[in-house]
Design brief:
mainly alpha; single chain; 174 residues; 7 helices
Length: 174
């Protein structure tokens, strides 16, 4: 069990490294993260039904988010073709899909919003000042991976206080 957590945190670190260094992440890391998240979920819940329901709800939530972003960009560009690749990377979406297999919906929604706030704060207060002005992209998947790793580590240190709702099934059962 602890090996799965260690492998998950290692995978998150690799995603962060690649996203910061290359502004791209190998899809294999996202596939490995998805498999690790599925294993963690099933190891502690042991219910395919819960897994399927939660993954479906989380992915519908993501689809709604991406659809809203697409519609907003469509109207912002005066109803012209929208280039989503320049706005959000495929890796960012693949990362969230992988994480959607681990967390129950309410925890996933809180994680999603918290990771976006964390990413914006880190970008505006640290990364934006330290990088070359040419690179204006945000390594969102990398920053969200850091945030998830921090949540997992803190759930070991303070298991009763961090994401206490239903998160503990995946972490505190170790």
């Amino acid at each position: 069990m602890k090996i799965l957590i260690f492998l998950t945190i290692t995978n998150l670190c690799l995603i962060t490294y690649q996203d910061f260094k290359y502004r791209a992440v190998s899809w294999i890391l996202f596939a490995m993260l998805a498999i690790l998240c599925i294993c963690l979920h099933l190891l502690f819940n042991q219910s395919w039904e819960d897994f399927g329901r939660q993954a479906l709800i989380n992915n519908i939530f993501l689809l709604i988010q991406v659809s809203i972003a697409f519609v907003l960009l469509f109207f912002k560009n005066n109803r012209k073709k929208v280039d989503m690749k320049s706005k959000i990377g495929l890796g960012d979406i693949l990362f969230l899909i992988a994480v959607s297999f681990l967390l129950p919906f309410m925890v996933f929604a809180i994680y999603y919003l918290g990771s976006l706030v964390f990413s914006l704060l880190i970008y505006f207060f640290i990364l934006r000042r330290s990088q070359e002005p040419v690179n204006k992209t945000i390594p969102l998947a990398g920053l969200q991976a850091i945030f998830l790793a921090i949540c997992i580590i803190f759930s070991f240190i303070l298991p009763d206080y961090i994401l206490d709702m239903e998160w503990s099934y995946a972490i505190n059962g170790i």
